[in-house]
Amino acid sequence: MTEQTALDLAHAAMEAAPQDEAARLRFFERLADSELFLLLGAEPEGEKIQPEVFPTEEGEFVLVFDREERLAEFASRIVPYASLSGRMIVQMLSGSGIGLGVNLDVAPSEMLVPPDALEWLRQTLEHNPEEVEAGVEEILAPAGLPEVLLTALDAKLTTAAGLAENAYLVGLHYEGGGQGHLLGFVNAQSGAEPALAQAVSEALTFSGIEAGALDVGFFAASDEIAGKLARVGLRFELPKPVEPLGQVPSKPGSDPDKPPRLR
Predict the structure, then answer these.
(1) Within 13 Å of residue 21, how many CA atoms lie on the same side as its CB?
(2) CA atoms within 13 A on the CB side of 134
(3) 244 vs 126: CA distance, rounded Å
(4) Who contacts 185 (Cβ-Cβ below 8 Å, separation ≥6)?
C-alpha cells in the first residue's frame, strides 16, 4: 500500500467530519502549503507554462498531484509538468474560471476544487496581519490557547526554514490593562518579517481562530526582551535551510519572486 501523504490525511479527516469547519480549513491549508505537480499541455517556454485543461460537466479543470509518481500513474506516459506550491497555482488560476483537480484516479485524496473555492482560498492567503503597537507591560508564560493553534503554528513554522533562528510564544499584559499573546521571532533574516507574519496569520485563519488572538514581534538575540522570551516562552524551532548540492538549473516556479506565467 502506498504511504499516505499529508494531503491524503487532511482529506480523510475532512471527509470523516463533513460538518467540521476546522478539518476543512486544515485540508485547504495543506493544499496551499504542498508542493504540487501540475500537468502541462506543452513544455515550458522560459517562465511561461501552459497547463493541460480538461473540460468536464462541472467546468474546466487543470490537474495537480502531490507526488510525481501519482502524476506518472495518471498519465501512463511521459508528460511535461511543473513543480509549484499550491498557493502559487491558486494565484495563477485567479480569475480564469478554471478549477483544480487533485490526485484524480490515483489517490484517496482525489477531488475537484471548483473556481469559487479557489477564489476563497486566494483571498484567505492574501489576508495581511495588522501591526499592533501597544506597549508591553509584562511577559508571562502562555496560557489558554487552544491545542489546534499550537499544532498549526508548529506545522506552519516547519515551512519557514532559515527565515529565523527560533520563535517563542508568550503571554502579554499591555499598558492600560489589556492582555494577549505574542509569537516573538529571534534573529529573523532581513526582509523575512512579512513572510513570517503572514505564516502566523495563516496558522490562525486555518485554525478557525480570530486574527487578533496573537501578535507577532521580531527581536535580535542580543535584545533584553529576547532573554525574557526564552525564560518563560514556549519555544518553536525553525528548520535550518538545506544547503544546495552545487548549481541547480532554474525551472518554472523555482523562484517565489518570479512566479511562472500562463500562456
Answers:
(1) 5
(2) 20
(3) 30
(4) 163, 164, 166, 167, 193, 196, 216, 217, 218, 219
Instruction: Give the domains, in start order, of the chain with CATH numbers.
Output: 6-126 (3.40.1350.90), 136-237 (3.30.300)
> Letter for the amino acid at 198?
Q
| Exposure string over 61-92, b if 16+ CB within 10 A, otherwise e | bbbbbbbeebbbebbeeeebbbebbbbbbbbb
The number of helix segments (H) and strand segments (E) in the chain equals 8, 13
Q: How far is CA 193 from CA 113, 160, 185, 238, in A?
A: 31, 11, 9, 14
* Of 5, 10, 31, the residue nearest 202 (C-alpha): 31
Q: What are phi and psi of 13, to 5 degrees?
A: -65, -40
Q: pLDDT truncated to tens, each residue of the chain (263 aa)?
A: 468 999 999 999 999 998 888 889 889 999 998 999 999 999 888 778 899 999 988 899 999 999 999 999 999 999 999 999 999 999 999 899 999 999 999 999 999 999 999 999 998 887 665 555 557 778 999 988 888 888 889 988 988 889 999 999 999 887 777 788 889 999 999 999 988 988 888 888 888 776 556 888 899 999 988 999 999 999 999 988 765 544 444 455 555 445 555 54
Q: Which residue has the cell 491524503?
A: 8
> Cell 487552544 maps to which residue?
146
pTM reported for the whole predicted model:
0.69
